[in-house]
Amino acid sequence: MATFLNAEQESLAQEIASLLTDRGETISVAEATTGGLISAALLWVAGASRYYVGGGVVYTLKSRTGLAGVPGEEYANYRGTTPELLASLAESMRQRLATTWSVAESGLAGPTGGRAGAPAGRTTIGVAGPVARTAVIETGISDRGANMVEFTTHSLRFLRDAIREAGSAAS
Questions:
Q1: 140 vs 47: CA distance, rounded Å
Q2: Which residues 6+ apart lie within 8 Å of 29 measured at CB?
Q3: How far is residue 150's CA from residue 34's CA, in Å, rounded to a whole number?
Q4: Which residue range is the domain that position 91 belongs to?
Q5: Which CATH number covers residue 129?
Q6: 109-125: pLDDT as tens digits
């Protein structure tokens, strides 16, 4: 079967799908610099309608407040993505779409860094759900496309690990 995903992304998407389906749980996505690749990976698995509720590419403040429902005041002194902002974004999308889980991602794909001085190749990921967590990932590369792929892989891995953790805590 032809695919646009790399082998690790395929494996992660399949595992996430299996975990969510087995538990009757659902997922929503709020992504920025991955440009829809996280959602595409999750939708690549046949039967995605059993667990994938929806999401959006929330690349701008307008889309974060309008689509994800993040209160605009959270961005009053915006100086780049932070773990707190991504935790809020994930939780806002989770609540808005009434899902068990949500993953949010935003960063700097490149080739240049951000206005606040953050380098290209940095993204922040947030997961909301039975386990909530955030992480800042730095790839050390400035290639925009390569970073989008790396950010997608890291986001899927981070989500999978949170879902696994919730399952082991419930056992």
A1: 36
A2: 38, 39, 42, 54, 55, 56, 93, 102, 103, 104
A3: 9
A4: 7-170
A5: 3.90.950.20
A6: 999 998 888 999 999 99
The verdict on residue 2 lying in a domain is no
How many domains would you assign to the chain?
1
> How far apart, in Å, do the first and last CA atoms of the chain sit?
36
Question: pTM of the prediction?
Answer: 0.94
Tell whether 18 is covered by a domain: yes
Q: Residue 78 falls within a domain, yes or no?
A: yes
Q: 14 in a domain, yes or no? A: yes
Instruction: Give the torsion sign (CA, 165, 167, 169, 171).
Output: negative
Residue type, 43: L
Sheet holding 101-108, edge to edge: 52-57, 27-31, 101-108, 122-128, 133-138
